[in-house]
Structure prediction request, 361 residues.
Amino acid sequence: MAFPETKGTGTPAGPTTAEVAGQERVLAANTAGRGWRWQSLGRWEVALVGFVIATILYGAAESHYFLSGANFFDFGLNIGPIALMALPLTFIVMTGEIDLSVASTLGLACSLLGYLFEHGWPLPLAIVTVLLMGVVTGTFNGILVTRLGLPSLAVTIGTLTLYRGIAEIILGSSSVTGFPNAYDTVGTSPIPHTQFTWTLGIFLVLAIVFGVVLHATPLGRSMVAIGLNKETAFFSGIRVKRIKLLLYTLSGLICAAAGVLWTFQYATSRYDAGTGLELDVVTVVLFGGISIFGGRGTIVGVIMAVCVLGGIQSALTLINVSAQAQEVVTGCLLIVSVVLPNSGATIGQLRARWARRSAVP
Prediction:
């Protein structure tokens, strides 16, 4: 059900008496269930700590190279772009939406950067242009979802193909190399005095910012409220459409930045950069405890999910497991991330229903 906003202000029109009563019932239900939600979330984060420890033990047992600084650098190279794209997707999923075009936006950014560099653009100007392109693609997704009311799953499946097709048109099957050494060091040298890749370091800094926004600001509380019940959030004065549009724009910007870092990390520009990474990004977000239905999760959980997925991939690579087999593992983690966090909710609902039936004489 859609509700009109007051013209020119973006604030909701006044609800009827029946709507207010419905809103109060929803708020009461949310308040009653909030304690369980946080309790369940805590249990899942404890489970993630166990997954992280198990991953480290498994990797160390399989290869003595697993705990080396050089392997940690390789870990950052592999998981860094995925982790970076997972941050804005966390916010989007928190509101009950999805963005499957993240990897295609990365590929489009990579392709456009190579094209501009090949045609003589100064790299700083080319990078700014690519970031603006990311803003445009993200805003386009947001407009289709918020202003036209289209389902985000269908929209971003469409733009997943659209952006990848545009990337291929721009660059074709060729690749662009020869970037200046000052930029190529993003992929060959860690941050000074550490074993962190530049992409992973940027992710950790942004993760702190995203965590503060989500857990300690009105915007974060608004995202949670939208995910729990968007109609209730609307009648509470939250600008639902505006926030969702902002989040899609942010997603496009960060995915474009990930495309720039990807280009310099591998010292090449290709239209197929990041193909298939959307599955890994979604897995990180959901395995990190962000509810696919919205309204629940933490950035800490997402960070631990990055460690688990990256650690498993690193360990399997060291023992020469094929990429296809690793995709099977990623798919299993995705299923686990949907089934386990929500199994507690199902059990709780069944217990409540049984208690109500038992209370009836």
Q: What stands out?
A: DSSP finds 13 helices and no strands in the chain. The chain has one domain: 38-346. The CA atoms of residues 107 and 272 lie 6 Å apart. Residues 38-346 form a domain with the ABC transporter involved in vitamin B12 uptake, BtuC fold (CATH 1.10.3470).
